[in-house]
Amino acid sequence: MPVRIAKAPDSEITQAYLAVMEVLLVDDHPLIHEIMPAVLRKAFGEVEIIAANDLESAFQRLAHHKAPDFALLDLVLPGHAALDTLRRFRWKFSEVPVVVLSSIDDAATVRVARGMGVVGYLPKTLGPAQMVEALRKIAAGENYFPSPAPDK
């Protein structure tokens, strides 16, 4: 299921392409709030980012405004831990596509998150170019999940 049509070919500009993508960024780290807008702009061009520092702020925003094109959700937020964060978000707002953006990148967590219906999982260890490529895939309707780490 496509999250949003990416860039239109120059010869086919239509109203659908002129809509600005809206992303809800839910993370408690100021550095992520500073860096991700540039990554999102590089991936999608014009984009509106709605920032929330915790799950409750995200819930308030979603309860009173239209749903964003997708949510970038950190799994470790104040008062919530790992998959509990994702469970609560999916339970309250199951219609919002979720892309996990997390420092937790073990295979079991990624597998469970995938089973909970997230459209992508971006480890915070990805470089900017990899993150841009992953976001573009997700916006084109593909999924993105990190490859499992090789056995040591």
CATH structural architecture: 3-Layer(aba) Sandwich
Order of H and E elements: HEHEHEHEHEH
CATH topology: Rossmann fold
Care to count the β-strands? 5
Query: What would the principal axes of the Cα set say about the shape?
Result: globular
Task: List segments where confidence is low: pLDDT < 50 over at least 5 consecutive residues.
Answer: 1-16
Gyration radius, in Å: 15 Å
Number of helices: 6
Mean pLDDT across every amino acid position: 87
CATH level 1 class label: Alpha Beta
What would you give as the CATH superfamily?
Response regulator
What order do the strands of the largest sheet run in, or round the barrel if closed?
2-1-3-4-5
Termini separation: 36 Å
Largest sheet: 5 strands, parallel
Key terms:
disordered N terminus, single chain, 152 residues, alpha/beta, five-stranded parallel beta sheet, Rossmann fold, 5 strands
Give the SSE map.
Elements: H1 15-18, E1 21-26, H2 30-44, E2 47-52, H3 55-64, E3 70-73, H4 83-92, E4 98-102, H5 107-115, E5 120-123, H6 128-139
Parallel strand pairs: 1-2, 1-3, 3-4, 4-5
Helix pairs in contact: 2-6
Task: Please explain how this structure is put together.
The protein has a single domain (15-139), classed as Response regulator (Rossmann fold). The protein has six helices and five strands; from the N terminus they run αβαβαβαβαβα. It has helices spanning 15-18, 30-44, 55-64, 83-92, 107-115, 128-139; strands at 21-26, 47-52, 70-73, 98-102, 120-123. The chain starts with 14 loop residues before the first helix and ends in a 13-residue tail after the last helix. The relative contact order is 0.17.
